[in-house]
Specification:
This protein is mostly helical. The protein has one domain: Tetracycline Repressor, domain 2. Helices cover 76% and strands 0% of the residues. The protein has 10 helices and no strands. It starts with 5 loop residues before the first helix and ends in a 6-residue tail after the last helix.
Length: 186
């Protein structure tokens, strides 16, 4: 994202830079809108799952799997957002900072509901969310950020990438984590 310029976007769109400025104002405003448009379907999907009927634990599982499916599908873009935020790109930093009040809040409500139903340990919901996302979300995020310059040799990186991106293995890790978070299991 740091190398994205108004001129480059306008040229790729076959428009002049003045049209870009008229429609978006600034490069940062364009990036904010781009990130919000990209994120909106994910938030709608998680909100839909969270609002359905049924046991909260099942809705939580489905919401997390929806997040992870989205993450696998958009792993390169997510990796670029994380790297852009680390490089102090304001639109990326602001976007990442805004996430806490969105899908994580919905997940925390589902965790609290599953706890109230007696299906998850009665611990701080944020701690439970950290455990779940550390088990299933963090490996995918790390694998996304490694693209292009892995810290391991190519064979180990390829094997790890296959494991963290495989839908069956993702479900397995999530089920292991949820099982470990049941009352009396930890």
């Amino acid at each position: 994202m740091p190398s994205l310029t108004v001129r480059a976007v306008a040229a790729a769109a076959g428009a002049n830079p003045g049209s870009f400025v008229y429609h978006f104002g600034t490069r940062d405003a364009f990036l904010r809108e781009l990130l919000e448009d990209w994120y909106a379907p994910l938030l709608r999907g998680v909100s839909t799952v969270a609002g359905k009927d049924g046991p909260a634990l099942l809705r939580l599982r489905r919401a997390i799997l929806g997040l992870l499916d989205f993450g696998r599908e958009h792993q390169t873009f997510i990796g670029r957002i994380v790297l852009a935020a680390a490089a102090d790109e304001s639109a990326a930093r602001e976007f990442i900072a805004s996430l806490a009040g969105r899908h994580p809040r919905l997940l925390l409500r589902l965790i609290a509901a599953a706890q109230a139903e007696g299906d998850l340990v009665a611990e701080d919901p944020l701690q439970v969310l950290c455990m779940l996302m550390g088990s299933v979300g963090l490996p995918l995020l790390v694998a996304s950020a490694w693209q292009g310059s892995p810290p391991f040799d190519k064979a180990v990186s390829a094997a790890l990438g296959n494991i963290v991106r495989d839908p069956e293995r993702i479900r397995q890790r999530l089920d292991w984590a949820l099982h470990g978070l049941r009352p009396g299991e930890g």
